[in-house]
Design a protein that fits this description.
It is found in: Nucleus. This protein has 28 helices and 19 strands. The chain folds into five domains: 89 residues, no CATH class; 87 residues, no CATH class; 98 residues; 142 residues, no CATH class; 198 residues, no CATH class. By secondary structure, the protein is α+β, with helices and mostly antiparallel strands. About 10% of the residues have low confidence.
């Protein structure tokens, strides 16, 4: 499975993975691997293919020849660019198509058999064809470059393998997993592999907005210039559309379709034009800025006072907010959290090899701490002469995160702006005082990064509990193997609903149902005890547990008068308002106190983690090591249930 490094897109198809990268081309021009969430990236597609073969043991199935066979024998000539692979009936059309790729700065491979030379310059490619393949190029339509055995073999394979498909085999220790890189493949995820029309339109909109933002911020075009470009391109698009639609209408009428239907078809196509639809939202400078702020990582600068009497100010971009967005950025968050590689003691790499850093007590005690370097620079925004010199000189304070690898630290996109002020107004204590104040908060208190767990929990209880309950209540496996236990759980919930007159029991029932489905021990999750028991007696019952346990003092878990506490290491550590809050806090205790999921409850806890709280780390697991070695980071039983739920209800399509 290929995962996009910049969004939530995933696919088993390499061509679709490469095509998806084009939606992010205005962010950078690198090609990410993404296979099983690999973080490597490359400048060229060819380098990515070598990496897939060498690092991931992806073995190419013998590919059908893509170049000079007669179309009557092989059918089509196919473009060698993996993200394209368009088919042509005529070899000369293929050559013209490859020339178009060169004009787009793509590197193409010579289509002649046993050549394999690569070109990015159009004149070099045409000269190569003329000089090296003059005879083959002229006779391509009536000569056989491949022997007959190869043709017959490829024709046999074409019945079972889609034309020009590429299949990869990943050899693990205990099994082989097959991934079809182009074509219909079995999904490894309970989500939709291919984006819907709405998702594709949204990607297109964001890509167009990134292009306009790139014109303003990187190419330094004024807002009025960008507006002129947008207006002119929109006008040309409409004119082009009118010409194409007129030609299409004539073709449809010539095929016998009535004029009324043709008019309806043409209007629908015009109305669905993605470029024109997106420019409605991005047509003006105001709309573009509003879209940037709402959809991209925008941090509102603060205007802070330097000298109130002289009315001097400086602009401050809060470091805390900058770090929050940085850690939420999928493209670099894993690079920041990555463990540093061992260093050669005889080589000085960077500041971390210096005496000042090595003697710093804080970093000695916290080797994984965030390393932030601040530096300042002054620059002129104009080119003044005479008396105006230094009048408009601006002083800027920047920040770089030294936890990033060396190749990313000095990249302009990873250097963050912290403050701006006029150089003549600069006051070190005022400007750096606010910066140091925020740094002390980060050092002593820390900051919360990511989505709010409580919000995610409430949304899951609201949207996902009902389909989970309905599926588990009608689950064929439970009805056959656990029929009596299933009836008892459902009956208790029904009686509690009638007594309480609310939906609380319908939310709480999914947890005993999940434990029953996974055939695990409910007492490892919670225990229901008599409310008359004193605390010492309760603690004694949990003395042997080496993990958090929720204790419910009451008749049932639906009892509105019950009280809930969490027992940890023989002590009552947390008091909970109700059972559902108790389940959430019990689960979070595994993370806060660093416990592994116990055997006999690991499936239920992983389901809560991945489905209800949407905590899906790319690597690692909270499950305690057992006798059987797990080859994957997720539990197969949890994956199977998640996949069944995604087929059962639309609430899980985007999980």
């Amino acid at each position: 499975m290929f995962y996009c490094r910049l969004c939530n897109f995933k696919t088993p198809s390499l061509p679709r993975h490469l095509l998806h990268h084009k939606f992010h081309r205005n962010i950078h021009n690198y090609v990410h691997c993404g296979f099983e969430k690999c973080l490597k990236f490359f400048k060229k597609e060819a380098h990515l293919k070598k990496h897939l073969f060498r690092s991931h043991n992806l073995l190419k199935q013998k590919e059908n020849p893509k170049t000079v066979l007669n179309s009557d024998q092989r059918g089509k000539f196919v473009c060698s660019i993996s993200s394209c692979e368009k088919e042509w009936d005529c070899f000369s059309d293929l050559v013209k198509h490859l020339k178009v790729h060169i004009k787009k700065n793509d590197q193409i491979t010579c289509p002649m058999h046993d050549c394999g030379k690569k070109y990015k310059v159009l004149s070099s490619f045409t000269s190569h064809l003329t000089k090296q393949h003059r005879n083959n190029y002229k006779k391509v339509q009536d000569s056989k470059i491949y022997d007959q055995s190869e043709i017959e073999e490829s024709q046999t394979n074409s019945d079972s393998v889609e034309a020009q498909s590429l299949e990869c085999v990943v050899d693990n220790e205990n099994q082989s997993e097959r991934f079809e890189i182009d074509g219909n493949a079995q999904s490894e995820s309970p989500v939709e592999l291919n984006p819907s029309l709405e998702e594709s339109s949204d990607l297109y909109l964001h890509n167009l907005a990134q292009f306009y933002l790139k014109l303003e911020t990187q190419l330094l075009l004024s807002a009025s210039t960008v507006k002129t470009i947008v207006t002119e391109i929109t006008s040309m698009q409409r004119e082009s559309q009118n010409i194409v639609m007129t030609s299409l209408a004539r073709k449809l009428i010539s095929e016998g379709i009535s004029a009324d239907k043709v008019d309806i078809i043409v209007k629908e196509i015009i109305n669905e034009d993605p470029f024109l639809k997106c420019n409605v939202k991005l047509g003006s400078n105001y709309k573009r800025k509003k879209f940037y702020k709402e959809n991209f990582d925008f941090i509102q600068p603060e205007s802070l006072v330097i000298d109130k009497e002289n009315q001097t100010y400086f602009s401050y971009v809060p470091i805390i907010e900058t770090l929050k967005y940085t850690f939420q950025d999928k493209s670099i968050q894993h690079e920041i959290l990555k463990k540093p590689e061992p260093r050669d003691k005889d080589v000085l790499f960077d500041f971390m090899d210096g005496t000042v850093y090595k003697c710093n007590t804080f970093f000695n005690d916290n080797p994984d701490a965030l390393k932030i370097i601040l530096y300042q620079d002054a620059f002129e925004v104009v080119n003044p002469i005479g008396a105006a010199k230094k009048k408009h000189k601006i002083l800027a304070v920047y920040m770089s995160i030294e936890n990033l690898p060396e190749n990313l630290r000095s990249h302009v996109n990873t250097i963050k702006l912290v403050a701006l002020c006029n150089e003549i107004d600069f006051d070190c204590q005022k400007v750096y005082g606010k910066i140091v104040e925020d740094l002390k908060i980060i050092e002593t208190t820390g900051i919360e990064v990511g989505e709010c767990i409580l919000t995610t929990w409430k949304n899951s209880l609201e949207k996902k509990v009902k389909p989970i309950r309905q599926y588990l209540k009608t689950c064929h496996t439970l009805k056959i193997n656990k029929s009596q236990e299933l009836k008892n759980i459902i009956q208790d919930c029904k009686e509690a609903t009638e007594t309480r007159k609310d939906n609380y029991p319908k939310n709480a029932i999914i947890f005993p149902l999940l434990v029953l489905y996974f055939e695990e021990n409910i007492e490892l999750l919670y225990n229901i005890v008599d409310s008359a028991l004193n605390e010492d007696a309760i603690l004694e019952t949990c003395a042997n547990n080496n993990h958090p346990v929720l204790i419910i003092r009451g008749k049932t878990l639906y009892d509105s008068e019950s009280t809930c506490t969490i027992i940890l290491e023989g002590k009552t550590v947390i008091y909970c308002s109700d059972f559902l809050d108790g389940i959430l806090l019990t689960f979070l205790s595994y993370y806060i106190f660093g416990y592994k999921y116990p055997a006999g409850l690991e499936k239920t806890l992983e389901f809560i983690q991945r489905i209800l709280l949407q905590i899906n780390p790319p690597i690692g697991t909270k499950t305690a090591p057992g006798k059987k070695r797990r080859t994957k980071s997720y539990n197969s039983a949890v994956f199977s249930l998640a996949k069944a739920l995604s087929n059962f209800s639309d609430s899980f399509k985007t999980t």
